[in-house]
Amino acid sequence: MAGLPSEWTHEPHKVLKFRQGTKVGDIDANSSPGYKGDRDGSDEVQEERNERFAGLQEMLYANGKEGDPRSVLLVLQGMDTAGKGSIVKHVVGAANPMGVRYTSFGVPTEEERAHHFLWRIRKALPPAGHIGVFDRSHYEDVLVVRVHELVSREVTERRYDEINAFEKELVDSGTTLVKVAMFISLEEQKGRLAERLERPDRYWKYNPRDLDERKLWPAYQEAYQAVLDRTSTDYAPWFIVPSDKKWYSRLAINELLIEALKSLDMSWPPADFDIEAEKARLDQA
Known about the structure:
The protein has a single domain (about 10-285), classed as 3-Layer(aba) Sandwich (Rossmann fold), CATH 3.40.50. It is built from twelve helices and five strands. The protein has helices spanning about 10-15, 40-65, 85-90, 110-115, 120-125, 145, 155-170, 185-200, 210-215, 215-230, 245-260, 275-285, and strands spanning about 70-80, 100-105, 130-135, 175-185, 240. Helix 2 packs parallel to helix 11. It is globular, with a radius of gyration of 20 Å.
């Protein structure tokens, strides 16, 4: 585990990878798999790893400018208050925004509903050299849509296969997918919703519909189980990240991104000019 902070006892991309047979109902949202540290000291680890992530992200961007077609796509799925926005702010936010393409998928617009469900997803894919971030994603169409029975079960079943084929296409074209399912407990979600009601600077984040969705928790667990079972593949596996502890989910997803970038085996693009000649010119400038 060369390069990993000593607090990690197991490599995150291995310990968090979804394994067939894992039951959503058995996930301990308050756990911190593979990490022996605690909240104390996590800020220092986060700062250090943010620097590592930012350096790799800049290398990806630099290579993209030189014609390297590869990119990375981070997919964040989770119930309301799971901390998706926190990941965007505290992890992805460490990167140069020039090399990041962020998209938050809400309820489809009238135009989007008139197209295939993957139409709006394709429009938001990261360009070469970029890290794309999906705050919710194409999986809404087999999660929320399934729970609320907005389409038939036959359509939902077909969509799993369409998603797998779509993601295989992305991987074959040079996109590395990091799919993260963020799991939060009902108790922790209640506390986070209560905080939003106590703080005027959080009112804007509160949605009364969130309480209605809480009543559908068993249906959402069933829907997430189907997503994990049907769409975790060798080329685009799911990672399960317990998210009651925000400090842990940030550290874990940071490491998943670092590992994805390291797997690209990049180096800095060489100069396409005479370095010594340019130094001499600069001396005379």
